[in-house]
## 1
Amino acid sequence: MIINLKKQFFWTKIQKNLFVLLAVLAFAACSKKEPLQIASFQTLTGWGYTISNDNKILIKQSIIPVISEVKSFESEEDALKVANLVAEKLSQNISPSVTKNDLILLKIKL
């Protein structure tokens, strides 16, 4: 009879620990993720952008990607449009690459 009590005590302890572990995991999974921070900066010939997370720069783009010329964005607005697109792709776990079609759809001055 004592053996059964010890087994029962052992299983209730495991159940309690599993419940606490599951509660902690559920809380961690539901915690709010910080959004990516987007900033523009001025270059010698135009504008660029940075995308950072927790004050760590993930992407610093000073030229327009995909085009054959080495050219900065003509306006801050253009740089931020592309930055928002890249940040959205990153938040959806999609490749952050930008295509020429993306630039055309965003009406970026090439």
## 2
Amino acid sequence: MKIITKTITTPTLTPVEIIDITAEIRTAAAESGLQAGTVTVISQHTTAFININEKENCLLEDMVTFLKRLVPRDGNYSHNISPLDGRDNAHSHLLGLFMNTSETIPFSKGELLLGRWQSVFFIELDGPRLSRSILLQFCGI
């Protein structure tokens, strides 16, 4: 068994953004040299998350609209009174209650074993940010 850890980074451009990171994970899987195992994809942030879903433009727009409606940015949140980093981002943390920080994906022969319609997304809830980090940890043979 071998373990390989890699970090990928991405800037975010909007307050709520869904970024397809599947290609970067596929490349890292192929470069790992491992033939079979799992990769755990983890956001290293408390206001950005990982999700597996379908990549279809109208659906992605619907997802952003849904998130904005579910927990409005302008709500009356105690966290916003004196935030640690000066950002009024309570809504981002609250949305995180419904999301995953990580996903684990099997791979074989260097290829991710995702379904036909599945893509891996990094979901920004507190953008824009100059750089966000996503940790990939491959465990396999």
## 3
Amino acid sequence: MAMREIRIVGDPVLRTPCEPVTDIDARVRSLVEDLLETVDEDGRAGLAANQIGVSLRAFSWNIDDEIGYVLNPRIVELSEDEYQDGDEGCLSVPGLWFPTKRSWYARVEGIDLDGKKVVVEGEELMARCLQHEVDHLDGMLYLDRLERSVRKKAMKAVREQL
């Protein structure tokens, strides 16, 4: 296992949709170990594989003292009538937080290292994490979801950091 370096906004791997995991081999097992170790640090809620430079559909989470992972996640349900609009941040956009509208509830399905179906669901912070990490795997950053006026300010702040 290894604590991996986080890729920062501007790195093309963050804008490239990730490939599905097709073979659960030693490389994928090592990736999961690295995702779990790298997310296991105070202030980290989630980590997508492309944030550590691997373009495979996998992410880990660290919410309310629960650490886990899912391979080939896909969002299968979002609350349609309840939303949250709190500040959101990202390890790949360090130090910047902006109000981001997300569904209050989210449900993700995928598989584990044994190829068995995994269901991860939650409200509030867990829902935000699930949506945020699946966005990463689709090549999106939370900045892409910001309202136009907020996004303009956010992009200026990002440019000032680079």
## 4
Amino acid sequence: MAATTLQGKRIAFLAADGVEEVEYVQPREAVERAGATVELVSLKPGSIQSFNHLDQSKTYDVDVAAADADAGGYDGLVLPGGVANPDFLRTDPDAVRFVQAFFEAGKPVAVICHGPWTLIEADVVRGRRITSWPSLRTDLTNAGATWVDEPVVTDGNLTSSRKPGDLPAFCTALLTQFA
């Protein structure tokens, strides 16, 4: 069943240098196994450098730059974590605009670990129930969200998780959300 639930859907992964590799790779593999087409959106053409915690890992080719990406062409958005990745994304107006467009359209968004920093910048967490890496608790609370310490939380079109250890639950929840 899960192998075909996203057939015909197009999912964007928004990430930059410093993305936590496992938080990019595992959800991407889950979405692709479910039949969706995936595109990596980033700050510029070329490739991004992933990390395994603080150690450099693999690079991944960017499909489209955020400045050229149209949220209208996608059925869902995934924001993987890593500390540097969302910090780069939240300072880029095109990346923030791209995220905002998904929320304005009511499309499903999935975010993990430090990824909510980009959501805070996009001003889309106010009134939401969300989880994240624990160090973002104050940032999310100050941005008007209700932060909870749970493996996965779905609030409307937003699914969130805390850390790599939550990836099995996160992947299951985002597939359900995107279907």
